[in-house]
């Protein structure tokens, strides 16, 4: 190697890796209904992103766009650089999808369903399927029509993982799974991301999201309204304060604080919720009226996400 080559090696930075999932300005309409309204979302390798939002906010539509089942009205969605609409075949090889309601042919056994899906997924690994089935206590010889709701969900998980996909798209994946299987499922997702894969987890179970996700994206009416690590979102959560005062305090003094909500004045007790930035101003106002007793707590992730749902209604 020449000196010049060496200097090239020492100064060059590793090329930034293509994101596992990228949505840029993705919009999708169904007639007059705007299901997605300019969604930007990136998943990096090793990441689990919790994707939460009220019913009808656009989570499943996002997943269907990523699976190449829906064409965005505008914007672009890619998986590891492949266009989800124009190069959906490559995308299907890379993606494992667990739906909330697996629509599997009731006449087939687990193994038969797997074999049917082989071409779509660019091949499956029977050894991997057996391993995942064993860990979920699932018999792949079961006929879909004879299987319980939870057993069909386990089958959907095996189908999603059997081709060792890079990216998992999980839409309410633990619906119907018993707690032991839920835990095993989360272990499987953790192993997937530890090995450099990634997962988008759509869920209404916020405790599950908080435990599993590295980052949370909150969707409301087709738009991203909040995004951050669970700790960052919690840090932005309102403080709920309740105080007993020595002298009465006019309701307006609390109501007029920036971002104040749930304001109540009852006798010598006052209470309200304020964003973290307004806490010092609230404390100063309370102090002017002589604080005799004080309760103060910050909302947890679940309470603050629910507030985002309500705020943007
Ligand atoms: N095929 C369709 N035709 C017409 N409207 C649709 C279609 N699919 C979704 N929508 C509408 O798009 C919006 C977003 O729906 P979507 O299913 O993506 O929401 P979601 O966040 O997954 O909801 P949920 O939490 O209830 O599963 C809703 O208003 C829904 O009625």
Automatic annotation (TrEMBL):
Residues 1-20 are annotated as: Disordered. GO terms for molecular function: ATP binding. It is a peripheral membrane protein. It is found in: Cell membrane. PROSITE patterns: ABC_TRANSPORTER_2. Keywords: Antibiotic resistance, ATP-binding, Nucleotide-binding, Transport. Gene3D superfamilies: P-loop containing nucleotide triphosphate hydrolases. Residues 1-13 have a biased composition (Polar residues). Residues 21-246 form the ABC transporter domain. InterPro entries: AAA+_ATPase, ABC_transporter-like_ATP-bd, ABC_transporter_ATP-binding, P-loop_NTPase. Belongs to the ABC transporter superfamily. This is ABC transporter ATP-binding protein.
């Amino acid at each position: 190697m020449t000196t010049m080559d060496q200097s090239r090696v020492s100064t060059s930075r590793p090329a930034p890796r293509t994101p596992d999932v990228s949505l840029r300005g993705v919009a999708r309409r169904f007639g007059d209904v705007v299901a997605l309204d300019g969604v930007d979302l990136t998943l990096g390798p090793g990441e689990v992103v919790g994707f939460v939002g009220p019913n009808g906010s656009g989570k499943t539509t996002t997943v269907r766009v990523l699976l190449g089942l829906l064409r965005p009205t505008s914007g672009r969605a890619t998986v590891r650089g492949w266009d989800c609409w124009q190069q959906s075949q490559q995308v299907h090889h890379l993606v494992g999808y667990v739906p909330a309601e697996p629509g599997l042919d009731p006449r087939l056994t687990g193994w038969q369903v797997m074999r049917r899906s082989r071409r779509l997924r660019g091949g499956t690994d029977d050894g991997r399927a057996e391993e995942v089935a064993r860990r979920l206590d699932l018999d792949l010889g079961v006929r879909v029509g004879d299987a319980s709701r939870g057993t069909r969900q386990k089958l959907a998980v095996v189908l999603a993982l059997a081709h060792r996909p890079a990216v998992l798209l999980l839409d309410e994946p633990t619906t119907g799974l018993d707690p032991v299987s839920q835990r095993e499922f989360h272990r499987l997702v953790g192993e997937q991301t530890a090995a450099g894969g990634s997962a988008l987890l759509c869920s209404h179970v916020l405790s599950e999201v908080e435990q599993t996700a590295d980052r949370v994206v909150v969707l409301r009416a087709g738009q991203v309204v909040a995004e951050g690590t669970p700790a960052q979102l919690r840090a932005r959560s309102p403080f709920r304060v309740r105080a007993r005062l020595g002298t009465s305090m006019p309701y307006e003094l609390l109501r007029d604080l920036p971002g104040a909500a749930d304001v109540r004045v009852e006798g010598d007790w006052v209470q309200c919720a304020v964003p973290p930035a307004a806490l010092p101003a609230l404390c100063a106002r309370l102090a002017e009226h002589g604080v005799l007793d004080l309760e103060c707590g910050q909302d947890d992730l679940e309470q603050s996400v629910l507030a985002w749902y309500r705020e943007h209604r």
